[in-house]
């Protein structure tokens, strides 16, 4: 058995139907525990006060905004190289979810930045590349809607996804590329080093990240299943028109 | 029960409200389209005598 078996729509529908209830349960549990812990039971930061509670939404959303584009890149490449329809439909299904995560990261970032930085927006390398990533998400979704032939749409959006990956990478590593800018470098990747984030914040943050990852997987599976059904409906309707 | 958010109540409160409002919209649209496409496929399959 290989991973390519799941490129078969029937196999994908069977397998996803089996695992979806478990993933939905894990999503509700991790998001529920993570957000309740983060909002009600985390202490104030010694410098940022209660505004640190925004971190539990902002960091997972920003991570998933970039990771969703990464997933779209992989599935688009699979479509371009191997022509598996399920992978193209999975990329299409992931785009609105990635856009939502990008919006959440931008809005919560602005709400957090206003009291801590003194400004909601700055043309900082990370913020700017993140905004451009959001515009790429919009363009990607619009392109799928604008092209009638689904295979041509998958080809064109696949190319757009490859181009947009530059900004996905930039938005994650901009802080390392450029020394200047308001946005700090990642803190959670520094656990185990000299000044790690306190476990009082780190543990609920990890649970929130798990919740956001699971929510992404749940929604991608649900939306991909819908896209597969839609493709079958269109094929049957085309057959009706010919008959 | 409600934590004391002090002078950051507006920013923290709105962060959580906006996040879960966007999640609700996304999940709602996903389930609505799923139901609509399922119904459409069932109609077409019934018309063509397939199960």
Give an overview of the whole structure.
The complex is a heterodimer of chains A (243) and B (51). Chain A has 243 residues and is mainly α. Chain A is built from six helices and no strands. Chain A has helices spanning 9-41, 55-82, 85-117, 125-146, 150-177, 199-242. Chain A is globular. Chain B is mostly helical. Chain B contains one helix and no strands. Chain B has one helix at 9-47. The longest helix of chain B is centred in the middle third of the chain and has 39 residues, at 9-47. Chain B is rod-shaped and about 65 Å long. The A-B interface holds A 35, 39-40, 44, 49-51, 53-54, 57-58, 61, 96-97, 100, 103-104, 107-108, 111-112, 114-115, 215, 219, 222-223, 225-226, 229-230, 232-233, 236-237, 239-240 and B 1, 3-9, 11-12, 14-16, 18-19, 22-23, 25-27, 29-31, 33-34, 37-38, 40-41, 44-45, 47-48, 50.
Number of DSSP E strands of chain B: 0
Percentage of residues assigned to helices of chain A: over 70%
Question: What's the helix-strand series of chain A?
Answer: HHHHHH
**Distance between the ends of chain A:** 38 Å
Mean pLDDT of chain A: 91
Q: Biggest β-sheet of chain A: count, sense, barrel?
A: none
- Radius of gyration of chain B (Å): 21 Å
Q: Which percent bin holds the helix content of chain B?
A: over 70%
Judged by helices, strands and strand pairing, the structural class of chain B is: mainly alpha
Question: Any low-confidence stretches of chain B, pLDDT <50, length ≥5?
Answer: none
Mean pLDDT value of chain B: 93
Beta-strand fraction estimate of chain A: under 5%
What fraction of the residues of chain B are assigned to beta strands by DSSP?
A: under 5%
How large is the radius of gyration of chain A?
20 Å
Number of E strands of chain A? 0
Summarize the helix and strand pattern of chain B as letters: H
Shape summary of chain A: globular
Taking pLDDT < 50 over at least 5 consecutive residues as the criterion, the unreliable ranges of chain A are: none
């Amino acid at each position: 058995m290989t991973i390519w078996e799941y490129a078969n729509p029937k196999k994908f529908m069977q397998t996803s139907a089996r695992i979806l209830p478990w993933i939905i349960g894990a999503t509700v549990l991790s998001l529920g525990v993570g957000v309740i812990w983060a909002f009600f039971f985390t202490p104030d930061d010694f410098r940022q006060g209660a505004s640190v509670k925004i971190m539990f939404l902002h960091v997972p959303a920003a991570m998933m905004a970039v990771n969703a584009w990464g997933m779209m890149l992989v599935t688009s490449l699979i479509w371009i190289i191997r022509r598996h329809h399920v992978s193209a439909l999975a990329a299409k299904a992931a785009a609105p979810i990635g856009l939502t995560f990008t919006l959440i990261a931008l809005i919560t970032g602005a709400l957090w930045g206003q009291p801590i930085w003194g400004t909601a927006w700055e043309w900082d390398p990370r913020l700017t590349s993140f905004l451009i990533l959001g515009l790429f998400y919009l363009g990607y979704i619009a392109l799928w809607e604008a092209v009638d032939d689904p295979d041509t749409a998958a080809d064109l959006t696949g190319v757009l996804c490859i181009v947009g990956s530059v900004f996905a990478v930039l938005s994650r590593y901009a802080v390392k590329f450029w020394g200047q800018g308001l946005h700090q470098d990642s803190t959670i990747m520094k656990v185990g080093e000299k000044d790690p984030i306190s476990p009082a914040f780190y543990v609920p943050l990890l649970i929130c990240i798990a919740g956001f990852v699971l929510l992404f997987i749940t929604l991608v599976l649900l939306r991909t299943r819908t896209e597969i059904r839609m493709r079958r409906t269109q094929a049957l309707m085309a057959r009706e028109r010919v008959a | 029960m409600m934590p004391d958010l002090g002078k950051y109540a507006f920013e923290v409160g709105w962060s959580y409200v906006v996040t879960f409002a966007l999640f609700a919209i996304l999940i709602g649209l996903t389930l609505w389209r799923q139901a609509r496409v399922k119904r459409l496929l069932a109609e077409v399959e019934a018309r063509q005598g397939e199960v």
